[in-house]
Amino acid sequence: MNGTKWDVRVLAVAGVGLMGLAAVFLWRDLQVPMEMLLAVVAVGATGLALAGVPQERPLAGPIAVLTCAVLGGAWYAATKSGLLLAGLAVTLVAAMLSVWRSRRVGGEKDRVQSVLLWYGLTAAAIAASWAFYFHFLTMGFAGDDVGRRLVLTLGWLVAGVALVLHGRARGEGVIRDAGFAFIAIAVGKALAYDTTHLSGTLRVAGLAGAGMLMLGGAWLSARNAARSA
């Protein structure tokens, strides 16, 4: 029996190695841009999120998605290549599917898996939204409109407040923490970037709008807590 297991492992490892080598040469011979590698890896992460593999190794899919989101976002920040947008979009879809699948599967939720799922979704959403914003607004049709700088700040704040309220309502701290991650990044951007790159009415309106969103979230959270008390 042990000899059979050893044979299977040797054959499997050799087969995977040869297939990987074939993929490398195929990629090189077709002269596919390196940036498309992110899309390929993201598709693989999507497969892990939906296939039966996570049932045996439940952290494989979430780790793959989180890795794609972080590395893909950093790659785009370094190169600003539009070819990475496809990979970031697929990564975001994979993150959403991972969370959706975890909600569909019953049973007790693993804390580590939940953290990886929701922070993978957070990282993917932030990376994808910033990349698409920069490509289509900053470098595109709204390049001369400084008001575009408020889009991400307010968008991230809305997402963060919504997640905080949703997590509080469901009693799931990991969702609330993901919301606070959005809020922290949005507030950091407002203080470090918006206040120095905006002026006049736009700066006042941006800070006031962000403050109103935060106060509105606090009011809704307090009201929901009072109702459930």
TrEMBL record:
The keyword Nucleotidyltransferase belongs to this UniProt entry's keyword annotation: no
Coiled-coil intervals, chain numbering: none
Pfam families: DUF2339
InterPro entries recorded: DUF2339_TM
Keyword Transmembrane helix found: yes
Protein keywords: Membrane, Transmembrane, Transmembrane helix
TM segment ranges: 7-27, 33-52, 59-77, 83-100, 112-134, 146-165, 174-192, 204-222
Protein name: DUF2339 domain-containing protein
Source species: Hyalangium minutum
Phylogenetic classification of the source organism: Bacteria, Pseudomonadati, Myxococcota, Myxococcia, Myxococcales
